[in-house]
Amino acid sequence: MLKHLTFILVCQLAGELLAKALHLSVPGPVIGMALLFAFLLWRGGIPEELAVAADGLLRHLSLLFVPAGVGVMLHFRLIGDDWLAVGAALVVSTVLTIAVTALMMDWLGRRAEAGNGEGRADG
């Protein structure tokens, strides 16, 4: 399990290094996640031990939000000064996320139904 947890962290480190070296505006952890995803696609699946390591991280995901929460509280006055812009951004991003998720679910559902209907002799 330690080997696979290290692999996850190495992917994040590689993403950070790429982001800094190439002066990308994409955060390093996002690039690292894309690298991990590409590896899993190339491999054709998720190794069982990697799934166990990732599930362990996901079980304690809420702990990873503590530093972010502390940072928000540290700069709470700044957020309070721009509460309208922050609130509007939160509302708009939430509504857009729900809309995009609904559209994707609808599209994927129609695609799945079309795929199930093809090749059937009865109908």
Give the SSE layout.
Layout: H1 2-21, H2 28-43, H3 48-59, H4 61-64, H5 66-74, H6 76-81, H7 83-117
Helix pairs in contact: 1-2, 1-3
Low-confidence stretches: none
General shape:
extended
Rg computed from alpha carbons, rounded to a whole number of angstroms: 20 Å
End-to-end CA span? 49 Å
What is the assembly state of the chains in this entry?
single chain
Helix count, per DSSP? 7
What's the total number of strands? 0
Mean residue pLDDT: 88
Largest sheet: none
Structural class: mainly alpha
The helix-strand sequence is HHHHHHH
Range of helix content: over 70%
Strand percentage: under 5%
The figure for the number of domains is: 2
What does this structure look like?
The protein is an all-alpha fold. It is 83% helix and 0% strand. The mean pLDDT is 88. The protein is built from seven helices and no strands.
Summarize the structure.
It is built from seven helices and no strands. By secondary structure, it is mainly alpha-helical.
Descriptors for this entry?
123 residues, mainly alpha, 0% strand, extended
